[in-house]
Amino acid sequence: MTEKQELILETALRLFAKYGFDTTPTSQIAKEAGVSEGLIFRHFTNKDGLMDAILALSDERMSTHVSRIVELTDPLAQVHATIELPAKLFSEEREFWMLQFSLKWQKKYKNQPYQASTHQLELTQLITNAFQKLGYPEPEKEVLFLIMLLDGLSSQLMRQPSDEFIQTILAFIKSKYR
Amino acid sequence: MTEKQELILETALRLFAKYGFDTTPTSQIAKEAGVSEGLIFRHFTNKDGLMDAILALSDERMSTHVSRIVELTDPLAQVHATIELPAKLFSEEREFWMLQFSLKWQKKYKNQPYQASTHQLELTQLITNAFQKLGYPEPEKEVLFLIMLLDGLSSQLMRQPSDEFIQTILAFIKSKYR
DNA sequence: ATAAAAAGTGAGCAATCACTCACATAACTG
DNA sequence: CAGTTATGTGAGTGATTGCTCACTTTTTAT
Asked: Residue B2: which nucleotide is closest by CA–C1'?
């Protein structure tokens, strides 16, 4: 990955997150990245290719986070770590994950990111087992419940990202699982 | 509201929900509605005006649903009715509400629909009181929790709209509040 | 050093899109 | 009925956009 390639990806990510994919012209990406427009197409074929490259990074990063949760041995610790995941994602790379979540609603990339990825499935399986070990009578439904909750949490985090708010709500959610 | 005006709105709604606002040309709306393209602009000024007209309907419809919940006297019944709200919205007018939810993530209409409307606030207040009456120690946090949960539920409903799934998950959620 | 491959440029093209406008028809109004 | 307003048409326009391509510069390989 060239220095300019990374620069293009970073800029595209920032602009896509800020203005949306369809409303961000490749000319603007080139301008703000300080490269010629043609270079974008040389490296990423077309505008969709740019998005695909950004999404490929999503999988890598998610993989790291999930494997850290898998490493935990205590099932309750796994559940709590999962609850903390959205806030962690947003604190580390806000724009990147905001783009991910906004994409969930776009038809084009419906089968790509966060939601139905291998890691999502792996995590679901893990937390199902965790709930089972913790003695919950309906672990599958419990996981679905948690997924929905964290989905909504992500949505809240995008609007109200103050540290105080995050800590309060995380503590409250965790208090429901002990 | 003319017959053709309604036809345009319906068609625009369907196409916006299916393909997204930015990627739906006004020419296609006109074509599928069986009217001339110029008529769209005569009635709705510009493409944004079309969207605004659609969003104005959102407020009306939500108002009906919220006032029905307000009319209930039992606080637990209010909570349960709120839990059923997303599924109700989707069963009645799927495309319409899908568009609403997808819009949440678009910068342009961030201050418009579902989320921060008067009715959202009214409902939040109502359910806060309901939780208080039910003896929950932290009613404000409890409401936020429920909002997030229902947000995530909406997201699930869009992907997996089978009746069986909906009934199962609704029953499970409601079993948490009694 | 030289050739070949890769990286980088930017003017320009074809297509698309939101929107206009001159005009036609239909619906009210007195 | 005549006059006025509202509704409806669709070809045309200017601006924008994704993308190409002929070309230059830099890097790599031998």
From this structure: D7
- Give the C-alpha distances (Å, rounded to integers) separating B10 from A17, B4, B96: 30, 10, 9
Tell me, what's the pLDDT at A158? 86
Are B20 and A22 inside 8 Å of each other by CB?
Answer: yes
Alpha carbon dihedral A178, B155, B80, A170, in 10-degree steps, equals: 30
Per-residue pLDDT of B18-71, as tens digits, reads 999 999 999 999 999 999 999 999 999 999 999 999 999 888 899 999 999 999
A155 and B148 within 8 Å at the Cβ level: the answer is yes
In a domain, A148, yes or no: yes
H or E stretch covering B143: helix B139-159
Q: Reduced to 3 states, what is the DSSP secondary structure of residue B161?
A: coil
- CATH number of the domain residue B38 falls in: 1.10.10.60
Model pLDDT, residue A177: 97
Look at residue B114 in the predicted model and tell me its pLDDT: 39
Q: CA-CA distance, A154 to A140, in Å (whole number)? A: 21
Domain span at residue A136 reads 55-175
- For the cut 70, the answer to whether the pLDDT of residue A108 exceeds it is no
- Position A110 scores a pLDDT of 42
Do B81 and B24 lie in one domain? The reply is: no
Flag whether A157 is in a domain. Answer: yes
Total count of domains within chain B: 2
Look at residue A163 in the predicted model and tell me its pLDDT: 93
**Does B158 score more than 90 pLDDT?**
no
Gap from A44 CA to D25 C1', Å: 21
Of A104, A155, A173, the CB nearest to B145: A173
With b meaning 16 or more CB within 10 Å and e meaning fewer, what string describes B86-123? bbebbeeeeebbbbbbbbbbbeebeebbbbebebeebb
- Same-domain check for residues B39 and B73: no
Three-state DSSP class for A137? Answer: coil
Q: Give me the helices (H) in A104-138, please.
A: 118-133
